[in-house]
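User: Assemble these into one structure.

Assistant: Restating your components, then the assembled model:
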Amino acid sequence: MADDGENSLDSRPNDDSKPEKMFTLKKWNAVAMWSWDVECDICAICRVQVMDSCLRCQAENKRDVLGRQDCVVVWGECNHSFHHCCMSLWVKQNNRCPLCQQEWSIQRMGK
Amino acid sequence: MLRAIGKRDRDIFDEVWPEKRKIVLKLLRQETVSQREWQDLFFGVHFVCLWDEKGAAKIYDGLQQDIVEFIVQAQSKVQAQRGEQALLATYIVEWRKFFTQSNYLPLPFRQLEQSPQVKPPSGSGSASGSGSSTSAASTSNAAAAAGGSSSSNQAASSSSSSTKASTSAAAAAATSSSGGASSTTSAASNSASAASSSKKGITEDSPVRKLMLDSWNKHIFHDIKDRLQESAMKIVHAERNGDAYDAQLVVGVRESYVNLSSNAEDKLEIYREHFEKAYLKATADFYRLKSTEQQQENGVLAYMKYADAKLREEEVRAKRYLEPSSFNILTCRLVKVLIVDHLNSIIAECPALIRDYETDRLNLMFRLMDRVLDGEGVEAMMGDLQRHIKSAGLADMQSASEIITQDSEKYVERLLELFNKFSDLVRNAFNDDPRFLTARDIAFKMVVNDTSVFKMELPTSIANRGVKYTAPESKCPELLANYCDMLLRRTPLSKRLTSEQIDARLRDVLLVLKYVNNKDVFMRYHKVHLTRRLILGTSADSEKEEDIVEWLREVGMPADYVNRLARMFQDIKVSEDLNTQFRNSISRHDAINIKILNAGAWARCSERVSVSLPIELEDYIPDVEEFYKKKHSGRKLQWYHHMSNGTITFVNNFGRYDLDVTTFQMAVLFAWNQRQHDKISYENLRLATELPDPELRRTLWSLVAFPKIKKQILLMEPTAIGSPKDFAENTMFYINQEFAIVKNGKSQRRGKLNLIGRLQLSTERSQQEDNQSIVQLRILRTQEAIIKIMKVRKRMNNAALQAELIDILKNMFLPSKKMIKEQLEWLIEHKYMRRDDDDINMFIYVA
């Protein structure tokens, strides 16, 4: 943020065209939050919020503070969503959605 | 000699003994005995015992007569003395002589030990078996008794060294008084030393020795022990009064008491029952009088010095006059007379001394009280200290309450100053004794958690669980968090301090935090401040930010909380990368920075506020969303405009200014872009910005009455409005065309101004909810902890459960009894656990 006195040269084009605007935007720091686009925000397998990493990853996180972000969410064709980590363990035993018992197939994966 | 074989028994004794008896008498009198005579005596005894059936008994009887006779002579010598000193001196000389001989005389009569006719000494502990077996046990005693020549055993070194010194001194005294006899003494001891060193153990238990000592005891000692004792005590008394004295006399008396005992199991019996008892009584009597006198004459403070000095003096004296076994008993007795009996009057001085910070005297008092066994005095002092810290601390806080409730820096610094002062007191006066440290900590806790200076009210009820809960709590954690923020943010304070100073202060904050009960409040505020710093980018030093997170972990803050903070740092870095990518992707967006954050790490309860953005801002939104959708899938974005902020350029009649503003302020101000000179009503502003009423009021207030600036951006009509609540629908607002930044009394045409102040992260409503959510979280934590405990224990009674619960939760907050009870009921109701049918205080975990 340089001093405005010198800056006036740069912003001249703006001033020339519409000289009488009282307030002009110089900088905007916009803040947004992202969250998984899910219907239920708790993973039915590990009972942890899907926004947090799953139980397993949390336990491992204690050793390694950095390097989360891998614990993404996965949606099935049935539109139910779980931690990907949890679901990939689940399907090894039972290839059905734990909530609706439909055959599990991945519709999309969080990124 | 062979001739004797034929003779009758009685004759053998009669024939041999008279000769030998002369040698015995010589020995008793410490006259010179030639080596030949000495050996003759051995032989004679042996001979009689061998050939005369009753020889042993006869010798024993004869010996007894001689010894008694000798003793009676000595007695008359002693009794003839009138003066106390003379009596003692004579007694000691006689005793020393006799005692020396009691080590040698028995040697020739060892034969008697084997004889059944001579009564073995008092049943047990007899030396009748093999002589060598007892030697190990008795050498140490013997070494002490025989003193002088022998190489003393290690175990007995302390006792023997003192005896040793005194024996040699006594020997010197003996030579001077008994004149001519001196040479005989040394001759005898020389000739016997070889024998005694090897056979000491045997001499100790010999019946002859016992005979000698018992006779002495019966004939002299018994008659004059009271006089002896009395005289000795008089000498001690004189010494205590500072008069001239002869310490050797007392030492000599004590030695005779110790050595007289023929009881093998308890050598000190006679000493203890007579000498020690008398000494203790004399000492106690002496100081009972003196202490009262001293205290009355010189006052309690001087008396403490007196008592301390006398205790030490008596310890030194005891080393001279008493056996080591008596030291503790004597000290106990002295402590009783000198301290315990005056406990109340001494303790009564304590509060004043603490108040006046008299560390030396307190230290003295502490040392005195620390001698009292049951710790009553120390406890009383601890109580005084605790009360003083608490009341002084609170008084200090209250007297400064006007400043410190407003200014977290002053508050924390004042608090630390107080802490350091009292920590110094504990160090200097009480040597950092753990008991006083604990008292200090308890008092600190009370000061820190006190609610009389300022408090925050936690909500009275939480609707959805039907829990009623009200408790004012100290605002301290909030102020600590504020202070942390001032140190970590770019502020005048943090600029003034060096990095080391900031570190030291942050450590201080953690120190105070240790005493705070409601740490969860600190965590909450700390997180809010951190959020603000990260979003506005106002951290003074990002390394320190991460340091303190680790420190919080070290002091035992709950891991999930600390991890969440760490996650925020990470997330902000991820977001920075994203922002770079975004700005590279579309060249025209150089006026916008985006922070897209993980809602799980940041959002907590703060709800979003809808606002109608100025068109300049609104235009950016689709671009950002499109960009984000390309990068990620399965995510939804929510704009947190109450967190966003920016810089705008403001041009008016007077000059041109850069203003740092919140997005809400921007939304309000941009309403005038179309109609620069209009007055706009509150109602119309609400329509234009679509801000909720409380937010709009707050935002407007920040523009008409921003603190510490001379000229405000917005003006209003009517002007006499005192608070945001007083805005009416028709209150009119208009831009101050004469606005200028005033520096040093001069209006500037150019300049930069930050109108953000403290970025409002929470809305008006959520601020109320904040406290509620603290309580809510506590309830959940309590339930969680109860279940955690019960899962392990299965069965547990109420008291134990509460104790463990408090232990688990103490790093976050102190659960109230009431809340614990309510949560237990809730858990029982919901079948997580049940009460035992027989014992209402016993809980059972239900899986």
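The longest helix of chain B spans residues 269-321.
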